[in-house]
Design goal:
The N and C termini lie far apart (67 Å). With 249 residues, this protein is α+β, with helices and mostly antiparallel strands. It is built from six helices and ten strands; from the N terminus they run αβββαβββαββββααα. It folds into three domains: 89 residues, Phosphorylase Kinase, domain 1, CATH 3.30.200; 105 residues, Orthogonal Bundle (Transferase(Phosphotransferase), domain 1), CATH 1.10.510; 25 residues. 42% of the residues lie in helices and 17% in strands. The strands form three sheets. Strands 1-2-3-5-4 form a five-stranded antiparallel sheet, with helices on both faces. Strands 6-8-9 form a three-stranded antiparallel sheet. The radius of gyration is 20 Å and the shape is globular. The longest helix is centred in the first third of the chain and has 21 residues.
Length: 249
C-alpha cells in the first residue's frame, strides 16, 4: 500500500497546541458548535495560525468512550488520506481528545449553483478523490450525507467527516473492504444522476453495483422512522403547510 504521509502520528505545532489548549479550557471563549450529534461536537477555532475545525467527543460514560474511540479511528483514517486534494488536512489529535482539522471555505453541494460543465468537472474530481482514497486503503461510507460534500470557492469538491471510515488491513483487500468500496462508488453514481439510476451512461455502469447492505439500510431507515414517528411528523408538517396555503385569503 502506498502512503502519502509518514505512518508516524501527525504532530501539532507546540505553540499552536498551547493556544488550542488555552482556548479549549476556557469555556467562555468557545462559540456555539457549528454542529453536534451522536459523534460529538464540531467547533471553529480562530487563532494566530488561522482557522481550524475542532472535533470533540461529547456525553459521559459509555457514550463518551465510544466517541473518543471514534475520534481515534477517524484520526487514523485522516493519517492515510492526508495530502489528497479535496480532503481537509489533519493537524493531529490533541491530547487524545480533540481532532484538529483544516478549515476550508465552501458551500454545500446541494446548495451550489453549478452549470453543466462545472458540475461535470466537480463530479470527475470527486471520483478521483474516491479512487485515491481507496488506493490509500480507506473507504468513506457516508459520501451522500448532506453536510459531507461541499464545493470550494474554486468549484472543487471537499469531502468531509471520516467518522464512519473503514481502513484496509495490511494484507490484501478483504471482501468487506471491496464491498464498502462499491458503496462509495454507488454513492457517487447516485449523486451524479440524482438517484435516477436508470439514466446511468454506459461509461459509468462499471461504478454502480447495488449491494445488499444498502438495501438493508434503506429498510432499517424506514423502520426507524416508523418507530420514532419521524415519518408521521413529516406528513403532519406537510399537511399543516398545505392547509396554511389553502386558508390564505
Amino acid at each position: 500500500m502506498s502512503s502519502i504521509v509518514s505512518i508516524k502520528e501527525l504532530e501539532i505545532d507546540p505553540i499552536e497546541a498551547s493556544d488550542l489548549r488555552r482556548w479549549l479550557s476556557d469555556q467562555s471563549s468557545r462559540r456555539e458548535p457549528l454542529s453536534s450529534g451522536y459523534q460529538g461536537a464540531v467547533y471553529l477555532y480562530e487563532g494566530p495560525s488561522g482557522q481550524r475545525i475542532i472535533k470533540e467527543a461529547l456525553g459521559s460514560g459509555l457514550q463518551y468512550r465510544i466517541g473518543r474511540s471514534m475520534l481515534r479511528r477517524e484520526f487514523a483514517a485522516y493519517r492515510r488520506v492526508n495530502g489528497i486534494e479535496g480532503i481537509p488536512h489533519c493537524y493531529g489529535l490533541l491530547d487524545d481528545r480533540f481532532l484538529v482539522l483544516e478549515y476550508i471555505v465552501g458551500i454545500g453541494f446541494r446548495d451550489a449553483q453549478l452549470d453543466n460543465a462545472a458540475r461535470e468537472n466537480f463530479l470527475q474530481a470527486l471520483l478521483q478523490i474516491i479512487q485515491q482514497m481507496h488506493a490509500e486503503g480507506v473507504t468513506h461510507n457516508d459520501i451522500k450525507r448532506k453536510d459531507n460534500l461541499m464545493v470550494s470557492d474554486a468549484g472543487r469538491p471537499i469531502l468531509l467527516d471520516f467518522g464512519l471510515a473503514f481502513m484496509r488491513g495490511a494484507s490484501r483487500e478483504s471482501l468487506w473492504f471491496r464491498l464498502l468500496k462499491r458503496m462509495d462508488y454507488n454513492a457517487w453514481i447516485k449523486i451524479k444522476y440524482s438517484s435516477a439510476t436508470e439514466n446511468i451512461s454506459d461509461a459509468d455502469l462499471k461504478y454502480y453495483q447495488p449491494t445488499f447492505l444498502e438495501s438493508g439500510f434503506r429498510q432499517w431507515r424506514r423502520l426507524w422512522r416508523t418507530i420514532t414517528l419521524r415519518q408521521r411528523r413529516k406528513i403532519r408538517v406537510a399537511e399543516d403547510s398545505k392547509a396554511g396555503k389553502n386558508n390564505k385569503p
